[in-house]
Amino acid sequence: xxxxxxxxxxxxxxxxxxxxxxxxxxxxxxxxxxxxxxxxxxxxxxxxxxxxxxxxxxxxxxxxxxxxxxxxxxxxxxxxxxxxxxxxxxxxxxxxxxxxxxxxxxxxxxxxxxxxxxxxxxxxxxxxxxxxxxxxxxxxxxxxxxxxxxxxxxxxxxxxxxxxxxxxxxxxxxxxxxxxxxxxxxxxxxxxxxx
Length: 195
Prior knowledge:
about 200 residues, alpha/beta, five-stranded parallel sheet, about 30% helix
């Protein structure tokens, strides 16, 4: 088991290796919000594992305020994880992220259940998650898979493949009465939508 200090220094080297704009360790340490978020997560996760849940959540909240990155301290994150740019990243409580994963800004690893169970994605080693990708549910993204920018993924992704494009569902009302608001929370098509 690596010491916390060893992990933190490894995180700096990872940022330098994965970002061609990095000019040196001091610059990375002082100016990389993704790195700061990962560091706060590593400390918060250590607290979480020792049943200091409130303190861990407070540290995570502070990290979100300072970096724009929200990582639940209960999530499991491997070695050499790098968040490039960072702003808008959300990682849920039961998410599992392997080693050498690269994540860009705006990525969401979200849940799809209100139950206390595995409800967030598992990201295997060497995966790349493009900007604003949304991964929902207890799915698995296989080793070395790449998720393109803006992709919405709610099914397992095999190892080594690349997934691109948003996942959307066609909306087609079945009758005239479907066009009226019946208070059930259903989504109506926008005015002027093609029929």
